[in-house]
Design goal:
Oligomer: heterodimer
Strand content of chain B: under 5%
Shape of chain A: globular
Number of domains of chain B: 1
Helix content of chain A: over 70%
Number of domains of chain A: 1
Largest sheet of chain B: none
Shape of chain B: elongated
Strand content of chain A: under 5%
Number of strands of chain A: 0
Distance between the termini of chain B: 25 Å
Structural class of chain B: mainly alpha
Structural class of chain A: mainly alpha
Radius of gyration of chain B: 19 Å
Largest sheet of chain A: none
Chain lengths: 243, 235
């Protein structure tokens, strides 16, 4: 059900990621004052943007779950947030490396973008504990959806209020009106990297969805074969166990 | 048709008022939340005195200490807010009643707001005596505006998180870890707005953008809370 088109999607993602990296290393010019290390930008910014978009998508799936009661939306919401958290770790690590290389510190507090991202990340890190602490699967799905909606609304609010808090910033604005004042070659490479990471996200999303769905189906079949009495209930889990 | 059924369900405002009366009476008789929050706040001021090794605070530091303390104290109330509903069957009774479920959210948010106001009535004078350098009276009207907006946000989000956490396996863990990042915008807005009011050399003007950011936060989360609270009760 969720596995359809996975092969072609994987090939497309692999091809796009490879060509994006090829552009990053062989086409995009070195930054005038940061030099080679600035190339981490093509990984860092797309990871962060895609992670944030994934958090918001998790909230939208949460809304759909609450509206329809369809458990597959709970699974989608869970997977979207799960992969966003992994991408978020990547964005925080690459950001720290870049900050060390270009500003001289691993972490800079007067950077609204960094701080807001960290806070959003900390909030979503509570998603697993919350799910894991609820045993009843139906309630787990409902409460997780409420959390996902809260978090999805929190993402833009948090960025807004943290950015308010610091009038002056040195973190580059990539998506402002001037396009972060990038020259054409850089902008092209950046947009391609963004597309590549977004496609990578979608591929991983589909993979996890298909895998989770398959294991749920497998458990259902096993239970039907062995009978409900002999089949042990699954261990408590943060991941959705039913569809 | 039962002859005992009322002709029409009670008005929402009457339900909210009844729920608020019930909770405030419970608090007056048992004293579960507010005294603990007060003790916690005053102890935290003492801790900050030693932790920071300062005789008196002013400006940024004074406003930060005040807001972090109030936020932490409010977490205690969030943890207690729905305990009676869960343990004594209040949720079941409420769900059986022919009333709009959102009334429970509104009532609980108002109750939490009352708790916060009651705590602040004592904690802020205590803060002024113990740790605060400049007098808080120099800019009291502005301070009250900031307090009102921030308390409203804490009450709205706190009620929602309290309801989210109460029927998990570990509410005392879940509520604080979700609350702290979620309320960061309130702490930023309130602390930044309060800082110029607590300067040693006399209060400066209140900056409108912090109030706007607090107001926006309150509004967005109040709307979301009204929309999703039903789903935390449905069983």
């Amino acid at each position: 059900m969720f596995g359809r088109g996975l092969t072609s999607l994987s090939i497309a993602a692999a091809a796009l990621v490879t060509s994006a990296f090829a552009l990053v290393f062989f086409y995009a010019p070195n930054d005038a004052d940061q030099g080679f290390v600035q190339k981490i930008f093509y990984l860092h910014v797309p990871l962060a943007l895609v992670a944030l978009a994934g958090f918001v998508a998790g909230g939208l799936y949460g809304v759909q779950f609450l509206r329809s009661g369809d458990r597959s939306y709970d699974l989608r919401s869970y997977v979207a947030i799960h992969i966003s958290i992994i991408f978020g770790v990547g964005a925080l690590l690459t950001g720290a490396i870049w900050a060390k290389a270009s500003w001289g510190h691993w972490w800079v507090w007067d950077e609204p973008t960094l701080v807001a991202f960290l806070v959003v990340f900390l909030l979503y890190a509570c998603y697993w504990p919350l799910r894991f602490s609820i045993e009843d699967p139906e309630r787990q799905a409902r409460y997780a959806a409420v959390f996902a909606i809260l978090g999805g609304a929190f993402v833009p609010l948090c960025f807004l209020s943290v950015r308010f808090a610091q009038a002056a910033f040195t973190h580059p604005r990539v998506l402002d009106a001037s396009g972060g004042s990038m020259p054409g070659a850089m902008r092209l490479t950046f947009l391609l990297s963004l597309g590549a990471i977004a496609l990578l996200y979608m591929t991983l999303f589909k993979y996890e969805l298909a895998a989770k769905h398959a294991s749920i189906q497998l458990r259902r079949l096993k239970r039907r074969l062995a009978g409900d009495e002999t089949f042990a209930a699954p261990a408590r889990s943060a991941a959705p166990q039913h569809l | 048709m039962s002859a005992h059924a009322p002709p029409h369900p009670p008005r929402s405002s009457a339900v909210v008022a009844a729920l608020i009366r019930k909770d405030l009476r419970l608090e007056l008789r048992s004293g579960e939340a507010v005294p603990a929050m007060l003790l916690f706040s005053v102890s935290t001021f003492v801790l900050f005195h030693f932790g920071l090794d300062r005789e008196a605070l002013e400006g940024d530091l004074a406003s930060g200490v005040l807001w972090v303390t109030l936020l932490f104290a409010s977490v205690l109330a969030m943890n207690r807010l729905f305990v009676a509903e869960r343990d004594e069957g209040g949720f079941d009774g409420f769900l059986l009643a022919p009333v709009d479920r959102t009334t429970l959210f509104v009532a609980k948010a108002v109750v939490l707001l009352c708790f916060l106001v009651a705590v602040e009535l004592v904690a802020i004078p205590a803060y002024a005596v113990l740790l605060l350098g400049p007098s808080p009276w120099q800019a009291m009207p502005e301070l009250l505006v900031v307090l009102a907006l921030a308390d409203l946000g804490i009450a709205v989000v706190g009620t929602l998180v309290g309801a989210l956490g109460i029927r998990t396996g570990a509410p005392d863990l879940i509520v604080p870890i979700i609350t702290l990042p979620l309320m960061l915008p309130i702490v930023i807005g309130a602390a930044q707005a309060t800082a110029p009011l607590l300067l040693e050399g006399g209060a400066e003007a209140l900056s409108g953008r912090w109030l706007a950011s607090l107001g926006l936060y309150d509004m967005v989360f109040a709307l979301i809370a009204l929309a999703v609270f039903d789903f935390l009760l449905e069983d």
